[in-house]
Amino acid sequence: MAANRTIVALAVTALLVGTACWYFVDTNTERESQTAFPPEKELRQEAAVLLEPVPPATSATKSAVPSPIFQHYQCPSNTEDCERNPNVAATPEEAQWLLTHGYPTVKQIQDLRTRSTADYREEYQRTGSKVAQSLYAMSLALDGEARTAIGLLWQGAAQGNVYAFHLLSDLYRRTEELANLITSAAYLRAAYLAGDSRAADRYAYQFGMLSPPENLLADKEAFRLFKTYGRGRNYPRP
Fold it and tell me: Which of 27, 28, 37, 220 is deepest in the core (most CB within 10 A)?
């Protein structure tokens, strides 16, 4: 058990620390594909209703002062490849979408090990924030509690936490006892179906080595996961 916890902690740390939470691909075994997948034809797009709608903009908000939320989600100066980083926003509207759907900032990910899992649990229980939920799940995974984290992320996906699908993909990719490349690909594909267009870039980069039959299996599983855990809800990323 101690060995497994050590393996999980090292693996998840490799995912989360650095310039972007997803930028951990092994370049010796994986290659980048330039082809992003289209939406599934069978998927009937539902109305994209945000669970936490943003109030309409007023003249007071249309000032020259940058949005505080946008400032937090902008690409840090020391971060590379921000165009494919799902935790970076290009506009204030995209930053609000990230906050609403559970995406931590790059700095929050980098600072993950500076706080305890108990701190993240308390914050999540106190605020109910989807970002706090994501950080709590990440901290659980670092502590070797991958299965507990998965249960929390399933719950989050049902509540509109799109980032939960990214984290589930990470867990099924890097946790030794759960490792399943097709399932990992399917969860990332489900993030795309749930509305995160940048998940397509990550999928192409990270799963470009999959064969056509494997991609087909991942697509079918993704649709099932999206309907089961995401409840078929789509929240288009601005």
Answer: 37
